[in-house]
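Worked example 2:
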Amino acid sequence: MLTDRYPTRTERRLSMIPRRDPIVHSAKNKRDQGPLSEHHLQCFERDGFLWFENLFSSTPIMQGLLNNLASLEKFPGGVDSEQMIRDGDTGSLRSVFGVHEISKEFEALTKEKLILGMVRQILGSDVYIHQSRINAKPGFVGNGFNWHSDFETWHSEDGMPSMRALSVSLMLTDNTAFNGPLMLVPGSHEYHVPCQGLTPSGNWKQSLKNQKIGVPDEDSLETLINSGGISAPTGGAGSLLIFDCNTLHASQKNLSPWSRANAFFVFNSVENSLEAPYAGTIPRPEFLASRGSRVDFPQSRAKTSRPAANMG
């Protein structure tokens, strides 16, 4: 039987649990082995995320990604593929999963030296892609995403044992205050918020369209938001967000005419291999939770130039 340090999806409500894992996993004498400064690392430990405005805006990387973004609906599998998630209300494209496996441009981004250097520096190990996706919000009809911790889902439905994973999100379009930017709760990564309610079989088929199971209770949300506030980084295409797997986040509906699309790459430590789902369910598909495949990442940990960051 699995020892569960982060119980959730229970019939009765449980209280918040202080985090039982490090936030920056590199040993003290190796924290400087990467592109992030000590100040960056301290901000990540405090807030649970880092924001780099316009980091890749003027690079060839962005042009290739934008060309792919324009042809999302032409990806292999088409609109009937399980990896293509459509909004339950409007039918508009909501998410595309496994993008690094169906696009050479997005695969190349997972191997970008600056990104890999930051990820390895925080997680303190080599890494692999647990999940990749694009979340899209077309103008006027793009719906939002409810408050949640990614780790709560990855732990309960994928069997991720520890908080040793993070998301790297690249803005593929401008993220403004009006088109549903990602909202994060600074400091919320310090607490695991157990969610009430057993996990139905095949829950992912519904939760990817409108998540209802795995959503924190309002009292816990109010406590954490009153403590840390809400941050909604905005910036142009090419801006980069890195956030801890346990940082609470959400986004509102896009009521503007300007589409919003962000790419997400989830890096998990090779020392944090998935186990059986802690919710007692059947493991989710490989495109949601990789259990065996490993991206052939460059092994060099050589230092790269440090990015300037707008961390608010």
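Residues 2 and 273 are 14 Å apart (CA to CA). The first helix runs from residue 38 to 47.
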